[in-house]
């Protein structure tokens, strides 16, 4: 086999692996795992009623600094468009789930939980809590529910990242069973920016 043939064959194998991986991701039906609640906090599909609270939450300085959101500015209309566009598409094909963390009693919006980079075995998660709801252990409860969602989906692991100068988030992750993996290293965040990131992993 020539080097060119080897290259083409290697590329073909890589493409086939990626296609197979994506195909497996499609069977992840988040809707079957939702909603889920621990009695105080719930995780559910994001609705149009959440748009204003979501947009408001993204204006918070800590959310802007540490949530690494893909867009610079979220308005209620932008959120409405995402809910019926990219978010709906992600839920449909099992590759992205932008979910709402809500109060289990009132159903009111508390924050956001996201599953992304979904593979056949694991997924990365990210989260943020609106400033007026911090200090109520919402983050830890939501992460525990995320782990239960992962189990229902048949995932074996969940991954998470924080930036090096966000020890509070790392403490929450460690508190619910995640373990730090390796040392901080520069990585591209969902926002597109390169940050010194700390990686975490939990076995489900």
CATH superfamily: Gcn5-related N-acetyltransferase (GNAT)
Spans of at least 5 consecutive residues with low confidence: 1-26
Number of strands: 8
Distance between the termini: 43 Å
Secondary structural class: alpha+beta
Largest β sheet strand count, sense and barrel closure = 8 strands, mixed
Question: What does this protein look like?
Answer:
- This protein has 204 residues and is α+β, with helices and mostly antiparallel strands.
- It has one domain (28-203): Gcn5-related N-acetyltransferase (GNAT) (Aminopeptidase, 3-Layer(aba) Sandwich), CATH 3.40.630.30.
- It is built from 8 helices and 8 strands.
- It has helices spanning 3-25, 30-33, 51-57, 61-66, 76-84, 86-93, 138-153, 167-175; strands spanning 36-37, 41-45, 97-103, 109-116, 122-129, 157-163, 179-188, 194-203.
- The chain has an 8-stranded mixed β-sheet with strand order 1-2-3-4-5-6-8-7, with helices on both faces.
Q: Strands, helices and their partners?
A:
Elements: H1 3-25, H2 30-33, E1 36-37, E2 41-45, H3 51-57, H4 61-66, H5 76-84, H6 86-93, E3 97-103, E4 109-116, E5 122-129, H7 138-153, E6 157-163, H8 167-175, E7 179-188, E8 194-203
Parallel strand pairs: 5-6
Antiparallel strand pairs: 1-2, 2-3, 3-4, 4-5, 6-8, 7-8
Helix pairs in contact: 3-5, 5-6
